[in-house]
Write a structure and sequence with these properties.
It is a single chain. 71% of the residues lie in helices and 0% in strands. It has 7 helices and no strands. Helix 5 runs antiparallel to helix 6 and helix 6 packs antiparallel against helix 7.
Length: 137
């Protein structure tokens, strides 16, 4: 196996982005594991791996990765939104609502505002229409 270097980690990260775009989240996770092992501080790699975990329905690992991202970047609206989707998919609507609201407050993108509004208006444990199985993007 070739020796890892910063250049190979960049290549692996970019390849993982392409795999995720091609709907191969498991392949992306395999590449990102080595990147994160070598560079645990790399928030972009953690965010990408969290998205891949979400797409493979590995909700607990996705939640943990999104939380690490938010510890480092508490103003990351996308990470709040994606964590909200992850919690919603896990049946934890009350916890999800907090992150939807934070995402909408930080960046009032229509999908963030809709998620915060829908969760607030219904007040039940049902996820929003068409949202429970989607990539948090």
């Amino acid at each position: 196996m070739p020796e890892s270097s910063p250049e190979t980690h960049v290549i692996d990260f970019r390849a993982a982005e392409q795999l995720l775009a091609a709907r191969d989240p498991r392949g992306a996770i395999r590449l990102l594991d080595s990147v994160i092992t070598a560079h645990p501080e790399n928030t972009a790699a953690r965010l990408l791996r969290a998205r891949a975990f979400f797409l493979t329905a590995q909700l607990r690992p996705a939640e943990l990765e999104f939380q690490i991202v938010l510890e480092r970047e508490p103003d990351n609206a996308f990470a709040h939104f994606a964590l909200g989707r992850t919690l919603e998919r896990a049946g934890r609507s009350e916890e999800a609502l907090r992150h939807f609201r934070l995402a909408a407050a930080l960046e009032p993108r229509p999908e963030f505002v809709e998620a915060a509004r829908f969760a607030r208006d219904t007040g039940d444990d049902e996820p929003g229409p068409g949202h429970s199985n989607r990539d948090p993007e």
